[in-house]
Amino acid sequence: MFSYNFKYELKLLFRSRWIQLLSLILLLLFGFSTFNGKQKVEKRKSVIAMAHDEVRENDTKMLKLLDSLQRGMEVSASPWTLPTRPMAVGNYYPRVAAMEPQPMAFVSTGQADLFTHFVKPTATANDFAMNFTEMTSPVQLLFGSFDLAFVIVYLLPLLIIAFSYNVLSAEKESGTLRLLAAQPISIPNWVLQKLGLRFFWMAVLVIVALTIVLLIMGIDILAEGKLYLVLLAMVLGYMLFWFVLAFLVNLWIGSSAKNAVAMLGLWVLFVLMVPSVLNQLGNTIYPMPSRTLMINEMRELKAEVTKKQDEILDNYLRDHPEYAINDTTQKRSFWHRYMASQHLIKRELEPVVNTYEEQLKKQQRLVGRLKWVSPALTMQESLNKLAGTSTSDYESFRAQVVTFAETWREHFMPFLYNNQEFSSQDYSNLPKFQLTQQSFSPAVAFWPLLLISLGLLSLGLLLSKKGHQKFNLISS
Amino acid sequence: MTTRTFIKESKEMMRDGRIRIAFIIVILLLGAAVWISMRQYQNVNARYEAAKAAEREVWDNQGKKNPHSAAHYGTYAFKPKYPLSLVDQGVDKYTGTSIFLEAHNRNEAQFSAAADQTGLARFGDLTPDFVLLFMIPLLIILLGYNSFTKEREMGTLTLLKSQGISYWKWIWGKWTALFLPILLITSVLFLVASIVLSNLQDFGVFKWESLFALFAIYIVYYIIISNLVLLISAKAKKSGISLVISLCVWIIACLAAPKVASNFAEDRYPFPTRQEFAASVLKDKKAGLDGHNPWSKESKLLEKKVLEEYGVDSLHQLPFNFDGYRMQKGEEHEAEIYLKHYNHLKDQYIQQSKVYRNLAFLSPYLPTRFLSMAVAQTDYATHWDFADAAEDYRIATQKFLNNNFAQNSEYGNWSYQADAAFYKQLPNFEYDPPELNVILNRNSSNLMVMGVWLLGSFGLLFFIPKNL
Q1: Residues 6+ away with beta carbon under 8 Å from B348
Q2: Cα A68 to Cα A71: distance, rounded to the nearest angstrom
Q3: What's the average model confidence in pLDDT over B433-444?
Q4: Could B117 and A268 be called an inter-chain contact, meaning their C-beta atoms sit closer than 8 Å?
Q5: Which residues pair with B77 in a beta bridge?
Q6: Per-residue pLDDT tens for B323-375?
Q7: In chain B, which residues have their Cβ closer than 8 Å to the Cβ of A256?
Q8: ipTM above 0.95?
Q9: Among residues 436-475 of chain A, which lie with CB inside 8 Å of chain B?
Q10: How far apart are the CA of B108 and the nearest CA of chain A, in angstroms?
């Protein structure tokens, strides 16, 4: 019976041109979305490369200037920009702190359009006012990008629905169900086989289409073999979930149109409703404190600090006896007072600023716990993780940049408070930014999706066996 | 005949359990969405008022200091939320809410809500515009997909034909039966919105005609969707197929087209990255007058010009402090550079808007979305307006401070301090969003596209499916 079903199903799918149509749609969707994703990744790479080039150029200039100054030559730059002044190096010759795209970044735009991929923290930069958002049109952020993740999370289930909503009901509607009932196979088994075969064919088409598209786009899937397999496994797991839903709906609900309505209701629930409700929930349980009120707090503190600059400097130097220890001149300029005040402001504001990241982390944890409610959400989150564009990736980048900014600033403090000049020998000791990627456990989405699907499937089979007569498909 | 068709269809709908459930779900969603938006509006605005007052107090009480130190200390412009964001939140989530106004620099609005949220926020929020733009069209599809196909499937089509029914009247009856519940639900939503809005404290900002305009926009949108759904139902052979086609249209119009449009727009008219933008501004700035640098070539030129103008031979003899004067000239030069670069950015944005408009033939969703945001004052154009107003205020503030510095001190006196009372004389930052007629004028092409969709879909519905 199975081999018969297999042959018949393949013939049917070919003759009704389902396979041809589906291949075409899949190629188009995968092609367009991968193209978009790849374009974004390339832009990201070139922007970062340009930033590195710029730093290299500036550094050459700086070294030349230093060289001339050390030889006692006259230079034409304004005195306060001369790289012998440590604060000038700290402010005018910053390093690039960049977040290079991951190999699978083309899969999902995630938060990549919202945040910038490199910053150049200066010695006087306020850590909490550092702007990590990118200059994007908000309309684009609102609409989002047509990326591979969108095709997989939103559109693939719809193709599955169109492919499977009337497997049983069509037989009923065309009157062939009676013939079928006369065959030596139970109806649930028959539907299961039929949908299983359709899942098989669709999986083949998806894998083939995706592989072709990636090869054409020049993405080296062999080099990223493991990640590519992870992507395929996740997609198959997600498809399996929707096929299982289709199976249950086919068994329990009646006519073709009713099936389609039910499946679409589920789609709307999982893809549109659950994410927005969860988002609302996260915002309600862990509300973000107001940024405008944070600004107020910061401003008041700043106003206060400016009035007491000298006192602050004295305190600062008392706390840091290591600075200024080798300084015989004891000269104090604007920068000495300014940096000491900044230090104080930072220390005072740190708890306020940290609440944002903490609340965000709490929201993130809540989402992590509840994301299983919607496989669409699970899938999107995992694809973002795979692409390295998830919220937590950017959060970790931000944290690392803030640490680096601190290192950068502290690097110049001994120079400043010792009134020591920056020289070309010190150049090689300048700190450099090195991003450590988050560890990512790739199979994380696949197994739960498989588990959910199999759980639903066995539940469906169990219930349908128990109440077999209840379905009484023929008379209804 | 029209009324009979209408009565029969309406009865059928009311008796259908699925439709009752769908209606209840949509009403519940709308209720929750309105409630959430209302709370958010009140929260945001309470904070806005508090922040605005606190910031002004900090400014007023900064005490005796040099006006240019005050200029560097700067002030903030906060963006309020407008009452109609209750109906459409637009791009509010993605635009910053506060602009730091300081000497020498035009800053971007900072702290967008989306940057402080998890990736979930990108799926969308439970807001009235989500229900209005996405869910109600789905409801229309659910109500209307089998309007004609069921006659065929139940065999009543032959009966109808024997009645000698006029095709036009029949369609008209079906159309009214489909549209009336939608009109009802939309009216209820707007009624609730108007009750909530008229109870708001800052009622003055809210305009009734804007609410009516929004109502009209959504009604036209639903008419277009109803026409399309009925057209598909009349042409399709089976209910299932009709449903699937209608849903494809919905997905393309509401989900795929906007994303495709945004990819096209970004590809053809990209925004610079923040760093690129800053770098090109800096380059232009370096080429011109810097108020802090008296040794540059441009400063010397300015010195010469001013000395000649006043017929004196040293800066000390000028009737004002030249430091302050140079500071102001530098500020004016920098403002010009920012204007140039921001105008380039604005050009890109205008070109992008054209891309969206050109793709509106794929989707009635696009013009509706843009019109709705515009009328609700939550679109990108309003944000630009606000940012420009803040920039004007920044320039005026710098002038106010530099003039005080120039007129009340002599050249070289950087220790000059203006009185504490002086800072209180700075006018407040006031911003009024554009009026409805200005908004509609700006969006005339979107209105036209919607008009074409409206007439076109009616034309298709009444003239094409004669082969029933």
Answers
A1: A137, B269, B270, B271
A2: 5
A3: 87
A4: no
A5: B99
A6: 777 778 788 888 888 888 899 989 999 999 888 888 888 889 999 999 999 99
A7: 238-240
A8: no
A9: none
A10: 9
